[in-house]
Sequence to fold (189 residues):
Amino acid sequence: MKEIKESRKTRYTRMVLQDSLLELMRKKPIAKITIKELCENADINRTTFYAYYADQYDLLRKIEDETLSWVKEALSNLISQINQTDKYETMKMLEGIFQYFTENSRHLQTLMSEQGDIGFQQQLFTLIYQQCGMSPSTAADTNLNISEDYFIFAVNGSIGLLQHWLKNGINKSAKEMAEIIYDLTFPIR
Fold:
């Protein structure tokens, strides 16, 4: 019984610290966020913070890792249900991904903003596109002539489009975003 309370308390503490960091990142870059400020905002003492994280960058990495893990699992589930060999099925997968972005927009608005880590953003879209069958490594096998330059452009362009979408209050539906991304990044299919 005691372990359940500790586990619940640990989950709560981590959640509060994550929320606090993302809230502060909406206002300023992570480099300008101090541990003192982060802990005061979360109403957690510094000793507790250091029991879980080395610094604010470690906390951000953990948030990003959790997000990437979730996206990877969600993609696996979508792929197992969908045969993405045609446009309709790929669109269905992309729509599911954008629905996730809609449902988790509060955190993702920060992670995908200019204040977020571009490396994380690139990892996210590289993962999505590879799972959808678009990557420079698949080009050799399928003769799709996807150059590394094209792939980099598609990933970074998608990041910019997603940032714009999140920044402007999700002014299009998940389906509309899936159609836009598909039309812009999968013209070779």
Observations:
- The chain has ten helices and no strands.
- The CA atoms of residues 16 and 163 lie 24 Å apart.
